[in-house]
Design goal:
With about 250 residues, the chain is α/β, with parallel strands linked by helices. It is built from nine helices and ten strands. About 40% of the residues lie in helices and about 20% in strands. Strands 3-2-4-1-5 form a five-stranded parallel beta sheet, sandwiched between helices. Helix 4 crosses helix 5 and helix 7 crosses helix 8.
Amino acid sequence: MTKTTGTLYLIPNTLGSSEGADDALAHIIPEQVRLITSGLDYFVAENAKTARAFLKLIAIKHPLAKPLQEIEISELNVNTPAPALAGLLAPLLTGRDAGLVSEAGVPAVADPGADLVRLAHQHGIRVKPLVGPSSLLLAVMASGLNGQSFAFNGYLPTDAGLRAKRLKELESRSRAEKQTQLFIETPYRNAAMLDALLAHCQATTLICVATDLSLVTESIKTMNGAQWKSLLSAGKAPDFHKKPTVFLLLAQ
């Protein structure tokens, strides 16, 4: 009799640490997700250390299938060569279930896990997405910008000239298609990104800065370019230095 393949569970992680870890996890990660996670003994994670910290939080209320040191965690990140993906899936082909865990938020969205999920489909492995926090969707929800049509553009160029060109392209596309444009930046460059937005976008363009989503330090503000310039001139810049932030714009 041929043994069936296991299931690849896409397990959401928190978007950052908060005080009162147990309460924070209970409010962000649904009970059923925590139960499923606690029953797995094989994980593919962007970062093994972060995954172990997440499993420690899970274990507060839900005992793990095995002692943490016996749970197998394989890493999958931007440096993982494509040929290595087959090895990561090998346990599932023998019937073993696995959990795919991102560094933060949901796996396979702005995350290297997407390649593993695609390969799982090619091998006929069941893929089961679980409910959890997505900074991108939370940002769209809270921005007040167009939630009917939006596009995530990842990281913009770090070169000032190329970044300016890209911002103008995104603003033009937003105006033509009435589409919200989302992008992110390395947290220590958040201030430079906001400055670039205000320098190269029209004064009427709506800009949302969404920081530390789902955390106690969460901050979300949407204003047009002119209003943002006034705020910064008054010395009231967002408190977003070295904090995960999603930027959104909608041209008017």
